[in-house]
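Hi everyone, sorry if this is the wrong subforum. Our group has a chain we'd like a structural model of before ordering constructs, and none of us has done structure prediction before. Sequence below.
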Amino acid sequence: MIEVTEIRKSYGAVQAVQGISFSIKTGEVVGLLGPNGAGKSTTMRMITGFLTADHGTITVEGINVADDPLGARARIGYLPESAPLYLDMEVTDFLRYIAALRRVQKNVVTGRVRDMVDVCGLGSVVGRPIGELSKGYRQRVGLAAAMLHQPSVLILDEPTSGLDPNQIQEIRAVIRELGRMRTVILSTHILQEVEAVCHRALIINKGQLVGQGSLTELMAQGHSQVRYHVLVNAAETALRDRAGSLAGVNLVACHAASTNWREAVFESTTTKPVSGEAIFQWTVANGWQLRELRRESASLEDVFRELTQ
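Answer:
Right subforum, don't worry. Here is the predicted structure as tokens:
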């Protein structure tokens, strides 16, 4: 659906995007992650044709954005961080106006507007000026406007920025529903957003792509993917002496939990760490009683911090 190859963009001496490449399949909801100033918005604006790449190519459904920008834009619905709305217009009047700009056939406009009102949950605010709506409902109006022409690709730049927790949950629910029907790129620096709605994520830092994959695959890119907390009735010296016989992990901490019990913390040394069963067998082989064995995986936040700092 979308192919991005070695795109670059500079603003004077500042290199905002430096040779990014990725592809997105039909029907995927992909999160574009990164700290503020990482190049997320610049990348999205180049995909939409709002900005021209200094180098590289972008295709949407096989259409080169540089060669045929109008053809590519016809297949894209774009919601920037600040939705461009006319606040004095009534909700459905605004949507009809957008339909005219998008050259939607007149005989289907009424049905299309009705569909967008239903999909985006706008029924309770029809008849009201957009300026009277909460920010959450304004975002919904922006989403409806972005989808009126039935684009195959939907690009959302920080769609929940500035919303309260209830509004965030509402917009996320709408995005999940939209992801069933079309390809979605979602730019955000909120990691919970990606976990809540995305199939896959791309992480950008300082204009470079530093990580990509499913959430599980991204977790595996952290240097400390898995830790095991083990509570055994063993002396600390014995634990430290025999830890070397347990392959795939290092002993990173050991302290007294009570008079006879010690808590040992093992950290994986490979992308395929030792299993919990192997640790259990290791304690049995050493003649120790095992009270607790707990696996602790790295969070997406841990991996994000490793890849962007």
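For your construct planning: The chain has a mean pLDDT of 88. Residues 2-218 form a domain with the Rossmann fold fold (CATH 3.40.50.300).
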